Inverse folding.
Protein backbone atom coordinates (compact mmCIF):
# COMPACT_ATOMS: atom_id res chain seq x y z
CA UNK A 1 0.00 0.00 0.00
CA UNK A 2 1.17 3.53 -0.76
CA UNK A 3 2.84 5.52 2.00
CA UNK A 4 0.40 8.34 1.12
CA UNK A 5 -2.36 6.45 2.91
CA UNK A 6 -3.15 7.82 6.38
CA UNK A 7 -1.19 5.77 8.97
CA UNK A 8 -4.16 4.45 10.95
CA UNK A 9 -5.96 3.49 7.75
CA UNK A 10 -2.85 1.77 6.41
CA UNK A 11 -2.49 -0.26 9.60
CA UNK A 12 -6.16 -1.26 9.50
CA UNK A 13 -5.97 -2.36 5.87
CA UNK A 14 -2.72 -4.29 6.30
CA UNK A 15 -3.96 -6.09 9.42
CA UNK A 16 -7.21 -7.04 7.68
CA UNK A 17 -5.40 -8.41 4.63
CA UNK A 18 -2.85 -10.28 6.73
CA UNK A 19 -5.71 -11.98 8.57
CA UNK A 20 -7.15 -13.10 5.23
CA UNK A 21 -10.12 -10.73 5.44
CA UNK A 22 -11.58 -8.42 2.82
CA UNK A 23 -11.17 -4.66 3.12
CA UNK A 24 -14.49 -2.79 2.93
CA UNK A 25 -15.51 -1.09 -0.31
CA UNK A 26 -15.76 2.31 1.38
CA UNK A 27 -12.22 2.07 2.70
CA UNK A 28 -10.74 0.98 -0.62
CA UNK A 29 -12.56 3.71 -2.54
CA UNK A 30 -11.46 6.38 -0.09
CA UNK A 31 -7.86 5.16 -0.32
CA UNK A 32 -7.99 5.26 -4.12
CA UNK A 33 -9.45 8.77 -4.09
CA UNK A 34 -6.92 9.96 -1.52
CA UNK A 35 -3.99 8.49 -3.44
CA UNK A 36 -5.03 10.03 -6.77
CA UNK A 37 -5.54 13.41 -5.13
CA UNK A 38 -2.15 13.31 -3.44
CA UNK A 39 -0.47 12.60 -6.77
CA UNK A 40 -2.39 15.35 -8.53
CA UNK A 41 -4.05 12.88 -10.88
CA UNK A 42 -7.56 13.58 -9.60
CA UNK A 43 -8.51 17.10 -8.67
CA UNK A 44 -11.53 19.14 -7.71
CA UNK A 45 -13.06 22.33 -9.03
CA UNK A 46 -10.78 24.41 -6.84
CA UNK A 47 -11.39 28.19 -7.09
CA UNK A 48 -7.82 28.69 -8.31
CA UNK A 49 -8.69 26.79 -11.49
CA UNK A 50 -5.20 25.29 -11.58
CA UNK A 51 -4.88 21.94 -13.30
CA UNK A 52 -2.57 19.63 -11.43
CA UNK A 53 -0.16 17.67 -13.57
CA UNK A 54 2.87 15.59 -12.74
CA UNK A 55 5.01 18.00 -14.74
CA UNK A 56 3.94 20.93 -12.56
CA UNK A 57 4.13 21.65 -8.85
CA UNK A 58 1.00 19.62 -8.16
CA UNK A 59 2.68 17.39 -5.62
CA UNK A 60 3.60 20.46 -3.60
CA UNK A 61 0.21 22.15 -3.90
CA UNK A 62 -1.98 19.10 -3.37
CA UNK A 63 -3.74 18.67 -0.07
CA UNK A 64 -1.46 17.24 2.62
CA UNK A 65 -1.96 13.57 3.44
CA UNK A 66 -4.59 13.04 6.07
CA UNK A 67 -3.53 11.38 9.30
CA UNK A 68 -5.86 10.09 11.98
CA UNK A 69 -5.28 9.80 15.69
CA UNK A 70 -8.24 7.53 16.41
CA UNK A 71 -11.05 5.48 14.88
CA UNK A 72 -13.49 8.40 15.10
CA UNK A 73 -11.36 10.53 12.79
CA UNK A 74 -10.94 7.61 10.41
CA UNK A 75 -14.72 7.07 10.41
CA UNK A 76 -15.18 10.69 9.33
CA UNK A 77 -12.71 10.07 6.51
CA UNK A 78 -14.83 7.15 5.32
CA UNK A 79 -18.23 8.77 5.77
CA UNK A 80 -18.04 11.33 2.97
CA UNK A 81 -18.44 10.36 -0.71
CA UNK A 82 -15.21 8.98 -2.09
CA UNK A 83 -14.92 11.77 -4.68
CA UNK A 84 -15.81 14.68 -2.38
CA UNK A 85 -13.02 17.17 -1.67
CA UNK A 86 -15.09 20.22 -0.82
CA UNK A 87 -15.05 21.89 -4.24
CA UNK A 88 -17.65 19.91 -6.16
CA UNK A 89 -17.32 17.01 -8.57
CA UNK A 90 -13.78 15.73 -8.97
CA UNK A 91 -12.16 15.90 -12.40
CA UNK A 92 -9.48 13.79 -14.04
CA UNK A 93 -6.00 14.95 -14.92
CA UNK A 94 -5.46 14.48 -18.67
CA UNK A 95 -1.66 14.30 -18.39
CA UNK A 96 -0.56 11.00 -20.04
CA UNK A 97 1.78 10.41 -17.10
CA UNK A 98 -1.17 10.22 -14.73
CA UNK A 99 -1.59 6.48 -15.15
CA UNK A 100 -2.22 3.82 -12.53
CA UNK A 101 -3.12 0.16 -12.13
CA UNK A 102 -5.69 -1.36 -9.76
CA UNK A 103 -5.04 -5.03 -8.99
CA UNK A 104 -7.99 -7.08 -7.72
CA UNK A 105 -10.45 -4.20 -7.41
CA UNK A 106 -13.24 -3.85 -8.34
CA UNK A 107 -14.39 -7.43 -7.83
CA UNK A 108 -18.12 -6.88 -8.46
CA UNK A 109 -20.30 -4.78 -10.76
CA UNK A 110 -21.62 -2.61 -7.87
CA UNK A 111 -18.02 -1.85 -6.88
CA UNK A 112 -17.30 -0.90 -10.51
CA UNK A 113 -20.29 1.45 -10.51
CA UNK A 114 -18.96 3.22 -7.43
CA UNK A 115 -15.45 3.39 -8.85
CA UNK A 116 -16.88 5.01 -11.99
CA UNK A 117 -18.05 7.89 -9.79
CA UNK A 118 -14.43 8.60 -8.87
CA UNK A 119 -12.42 7.91 -11.99
CA UNK A 120 -13.15 6.53 -15.49
CA UNK A 121 -11.38 3.25 -16.24
CA UNK A 122 -10.00 3.03 -19.78
CA UNK A 123 -8.84 -0.61 -19.70
CA UNK A 124 -10.04 -3.62 -17.70
CA UNK A 125 -7.89 -6.75 -18.05
CA UNK A 126 -9.30 -10.20 -17.35
CA UNK A 127 -6.58 -12.85 -17.05
CA UNK A 128 -7.77 -16.38 -17.82
CA UNK A 129 -5.79 -19.22 -16.23
CA UNK A 130 -7.08 -22.80 -15.72
CA UNK A 131 -8.15 -23.58 -12.16
CA UNK A 132 -5.85 -26.62 -12.05
CA UNK A 133 -2.82 -24.40 -12.70
CA UNK A 134 -3.88 -21.95 -9.99
CA UNK A 135 -4.38 -24.77 -7.48
CA UNK A 136 -0.90 -26.12 -8.23
CA UNK A 137 0.59 -22.69 -7.53
CA UNK A 138 -1.33 -22.30 -4.28
CA UNK A 139 -0.40 -25.76 -3.01
CA UNK A 140 3.27 -25.01 -3.66
CA UNK A 141 3.38 -21.52 -2.13
CA UNK A 142 5.51 -20.81 0.96
CA UNK A 143 6.25 -17.45 2.55
CA UNK A 144 8.82 -15.89 4.85
CA UNK A 145 6.52 -13.82 7.04
CA UNK A 146 9.04 -11.28 8.44
CA UNK A 147 10.25 -10.17 4.99
CA UNK A 148 7.27 -11.04 2.81
CA UNK A 149 9.41 -13.14 0.44
CA UNK A 150 7.35 -15.69 -1.46
CA UNK A 151 8.54 -19.04 -2.81
CA UNK A 152 6.89 -21.77 -4.82
CA UNK A 153 7.96 -25.39 -5.10
CA UNK A 154 6.92 -25.54 -8.77
CA UNK A 155 9.00 -22.46 -9.66
CA UNK A 156 11.22 -20.14 -7.62
CA UNK A 157 11.78 -22.87 -5.04
CA UNK A 158 13.94 -22.04 -1.97
CA UNK A 159 17.54 -23.23 -2.16
CA UNK A 160 16.97 -25.31 0.98
CA UNK A 161 13.46 -26.81 1.19
CA UNK A 162 11.39 -25.09 3.86
CA UNK A 163 14.00 -22.40 4.56
CA UNK A 164 14.30 -18.74 3.55
CA UNK A 165 17.20 -18.13 1.16
CA UNK A 166 18.40 -15.00 2.98
CA UNK A 167 17.95 -15.74 6.68
CA UNK A 168 17.64 -19.52 6.76
CA UNK A 169 14.52 -19.13 8.89
CA UNK A 170 11.58 -21.53 8.46
CA UNK A 171 9.02 -20.80 5.76
CA UNK A 172 5.29 -20.93 6.46
CA UNK A 173 2.05 -21.57 4.63
CA UNK A 174 -0.57 -18.82 4.63
CA UNK A 175 -3.66 -19.83 6.56
CA UNK A 176 -5.84 -19.28 3.49
CA UNK A 177 -3.53 -21.20 1.12
CA UNK A 178 -5.66 -24.32 1.13
CA UNK A 179 -7.55 -26.03 -1.66
CA UNK A 180 -10.82 -25.88 0.27
CA UNK A 181 -10.57 -22.14 0.91
CA UNK A 182 -9.54 -21.31 -2.62
CA UNK A 183 -12.19 -23.45 -4.30
CA UNK A 184 -14.83 -21.62 -2.25
CA UNK A 185 -13.34 -18.29 -3.35
CA UNK A 186 -13.22 -19.47 -6.95
CA UNK A 187 -16.91 -20.37 -6.88
CA UNK A 188 -17.76 -16.96 -5.45
CA UNK A 189 -15.54 -15.27 -8.03
CA UNK A 190 -17.28 -17.06 -10.88
CA UNK A 191 -20.65 -15.88 -9.58
CA UNK A 192 -19.62 -12.23 -9.31
CA UNK A 193 -17.16 -11.86 -12.20
CA UNK A 194 -19.63 -12.29 -15.07
CA UNK A 195 -21.63 -9.12 -14.25
CA UNK A 196 -18.35 -7.27 -13.66
CA UNK A 197 -16.94 -8.31 -17.03
CA UNK A 198 -20.22 -7.36 -18.70
CA UNK A 199 -20.00 -3.94 -17.03
CA UNK A 200 -16.65 -3.19 -18.66
CA UNK A 201 -17.55 -4.93 -21.93
CA UNK A 202 -20.48 -2.53 -22.32
CA UNK A 203 -18.07 0.35 -21.88
CA UNK A 204 -15.79 -1.09 -24.55
CA UNK A 205 -12.74 -1.32 -22.28
CA UNK A 206 -12.61 -5.06 -21.49
CA UNK A 207 -9.62 -7.05 -22.76
CA UNK A 208 -9.18 -10.75 -21.98
CA UNK A 209 -5.88 -12.63 -22.09
CA UNK A 210 -5.19 -16.34 -21.68
CA UNK A 211 -2.02 -17.80 -20.20
CA UNK A 212 -0.49 -20.37 -17.89
CA UNK A 213 2.26 -18.26 -16.31
CA UNK A 214 3.50 -14.70 -15.89
CA UNK A 215 6.24 -15.40 -18.45
CA UNK A 216 3.51 -16.07 -21.01
CA UNK A 217 1.03 -13.39 -19.94
CA UNK A 218 3.33 -10.42 -19.26
CA UNK A 219 4.56 -9.98 -22.87
CA UNK A 220 0.95 -10.04 -24.08
CA UNK A 221 0.02 -7.37 -21.54
CA UNK A 222 2.94 -5.14 -22.51
CA UNK A 223 2.12 -5.43 -26.21
CA UNK A 224 -1.51 -4.50 -25.56
CA UNK A 225 -0.53 -1.54 -23.36
CA UNK A 226 1.82 -0.30 -26.08
CA UNK A 227 -0.84 -0.74 -28.76
CA UNK A 228 -3.41 1.24 -26.78
CA UNK A 229 -1.42 3.92 -25.00
CA UNK A 230 1.94 4.53 -26.65
Amino acid sequence: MSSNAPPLVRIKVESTMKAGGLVSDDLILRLISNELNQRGWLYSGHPSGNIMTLSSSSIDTAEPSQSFQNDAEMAAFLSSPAHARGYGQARINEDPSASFLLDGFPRTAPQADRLDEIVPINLAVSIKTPLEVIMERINGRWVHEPSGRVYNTSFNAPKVPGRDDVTGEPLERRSDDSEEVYRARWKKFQETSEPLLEHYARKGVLWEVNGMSSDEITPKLLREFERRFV
Observations:
- DSSP finds eight helices and six strands in the chain.
